Amino acid sequence: MDLAFLVTQALNALQAGMLLFLLSSGLALIFGVLQVINFAHGAFYMLGAYVGLTGLALTGRFWLAVPLAVLVVGAVGALVERAFIRRLYGADPLAQALLTFGLLLVLDEGVKWLWGPQIRSLPTPEALRGTIALLGVSYPAYRLLVVAVGGVAAVTLWLFLERSRLGAILRAGVSDRQMVAALGINLGVLFAFTFGLGAGLAAFGGVMAGPIASAYPGMGVEVLIKAFIVVVIGGLGSLKGAAVGSLLIGVAETFGQALAPDWAMVAVYAVMVAVLLWRPTGMFGAEAAT
Amino acid sequence: MAGMSRRQVLRTGVAAGVSAAAGLAFPALLRAQGKPLKIGLLLPYSKVYAVLGESITNGMRVVFEAEGNRVAGRPVELLREDDEVSPPVGLRKLRKFLTSDQVDFVVGPVSSAVAAAIRDPIHQAKVILLNANAGDNALTRERCSPYIFRTSFSNWQTSYGLGAWAKQHIGGTAYLTGSDYAAGYQIVGAFKEAFVAAGGTVVGESYVKLGSTDYAPIMAKIGAVGPALSFSFFAGSDAVHFVKQFAEFGLKGKVRLTGAGFLVSDDVLESQGDAAVGAVSTLHYTRTLQNPQNLEFRKRYQALTGKPPDVYAVQGYDTARVILEALRRTGGDTTDPERLSGVIRGIQFESPRGRFRFDPATHNAINDMYVMEVRRGDEGLANYVVSVVKELKDPGHCPNITA
Fold it and tell me: Considering B283, B314, B343, which residue would you say is the last residue of a domain?
């Protein structure tokens, strides 16, 4: 096991973590503001890949297909919130879970109906098919782009939440919904926007993962489980938690697979158990989270 | 009646009397001739193997529709039940077939886990099961049954033949990878057995959870070791991910990609594109086979479904052919399972995959295994035959069958 091997695996971990962050950040945001456990999030990830596929077929350009997927799925997310999710605010969390899980199944079947049950591949953009020499190893160019894009997305999201007026409203929504409503902010619009933003981020993850992980029905379920682990160890509703948690899970999974394949999945859960023993509300969770 | 002893006369008389008394039995038998032939398809029509279930069903339809959906005077009824790739669901649907539908044959399943769950009830009910895909070696070895026939392959068959060929034509060092479940270990194990016996060395082995999307950690390991070839068992979406990422990490020019045929079979090849070109694999069918049966089958399958056939379609086709031949030989009678089993054991015909016959000792199909290379040739991106391992027979023993 030489240095080049470790560098490659570190890059793998970073790249896996970045993709996971795109998914879990939206999940954390939706839970933070709407307090809904959104099982349908995996379906938005899948939709992102599929809309990207169609966008690619229509425009022939990956760089157009990506924003198209994000916008279309974001709009679908906002519509889903207005049509279904809003009816269950304050209801039994079990009812919400049932609704979003039902949505996941319906969207999964819908994808099969529209795009067929076969696995579909998103071609890697021509310019990024090769490998790039970096830190003494040659690494696939597209995966480096994923790392870069994930980093930029994290910083942008952070700036948006911390520096913009809308971001401030969102943060206020996380800490005290009643107060935000009392200040004259339209909660309905805020919730639809948040849900749409979360769905758009998941779609971003799905379409960026496309050239690596392809598009197929059911693809959302597997990643959803990992995204939930990230959100739990990061702290429910915490964006910072989602970022750190994603990287942690990326490292645990990649090095688990590389060094002790039989223990790869165990490593992921072991990290979760360890974090929860140390901080039961997650790394950045509120002390008295409910 | 001269020359017949009194005892013989008596016996004949009694026999005639019994027949007359049981007169109802004759019309019942006659009615059986026109009785619908019920075939219970226990296949996945949803979830990960939905495409396989559809292909097997369509392959069968090609056979029966050419017969006007009548076999030996009996109208054919295909009853479909979705096993959802789940053993408990498969078991429940099987009970429905056996008790309320009273099917004449059961066809399926795709998954070896479902096959394991339904094996005992089939064996006890003495209903003929034509296993049209599930490859678990044990199903025609220690878990075999006189009433179970496999028209597809054993896992061992899908890789053993490649071992010696790879050592001779590619090189002496191999890195082995597979899905982390029974099929992965059986298929990779059979390759290893043959490769090592031919003088090859295994330099590393990794198994990955079924349904993984990221194979980057393994690519780095293969790259670090630098073997002459990589052998894999992956199927479906796993195969697409593995093959694409193998090329992505720049291994394609350095390490020869090989595997059991599922790695680059027609159902995944289109998604893999150029990444798969040059890959070598073995399987018992590829649509580019040039025998007349296959040319005819391709035409009819295309007309029926609008798609070219895959290996699962041929397994369905051959399964239906077995049923057809069996009923022709028994005159449409499916009431005696022992007789039916004996008849099926002897069935042979020319199939799109080559000569089709069962190993009478295990009830597993004896397959010509094609060593194939992925190329962009006359038929577009496809697997083209480079060599044939003739009549590969699973080496297992079946304690329950006396051939």
Answer: B283
| Tens of pLDDT, residues B330-364 | 999 999 999 999 999 999 999 999 999 999 999 99
B187 vs B369: CA distance, rounded Å: 14
Nearest CB to B209: which of A15, A218, A265?
A: A265
Which of these three, B256, B283, B310, is where a domain ends?
B283
- What confidence tens digit (pLDDT) does each residue in A12-35 have? 999 999 999 999 999 998 988 888
Query: Based on C-alpha coordinates, what's the Rg of chain B?
Result: 24
The token pair at B258 is 């090989």
Subunit contact A121:B273, Cβ cutoff 8 A:
yes
Indicate if B141 and B68 belong to the same structural domain. yes
Task: Tell me the shortest Cα–Cα distance from A168 to chain B, in angstroms.
Answer: 37
User: For residue B224, what are the domain limits?
Assistant: 157-283
Tell me, what CATH number does B121's domain have? 3.40.50.2300
Q: Do B224 and A142 touch (CB under 8 A)?
A: no
ipTM exceeding cut-off 0.85 for this assembly: no
Bond into B109 cis (ω within 30):
yes
Other Cβ atoms within 10 Å of B30 Cβ, number: 10
Contact indicator for B349, B321 with CB cutoff of 8 Å: yes
Strand ranges in A74-172 using DSSP code E only, listed in sequence order: 131-134, 137-140
Distance, in angstroms, between B399 CA and closest chain A CA? 34
Structural domains in chain B (count): 2
pTM: 0.84
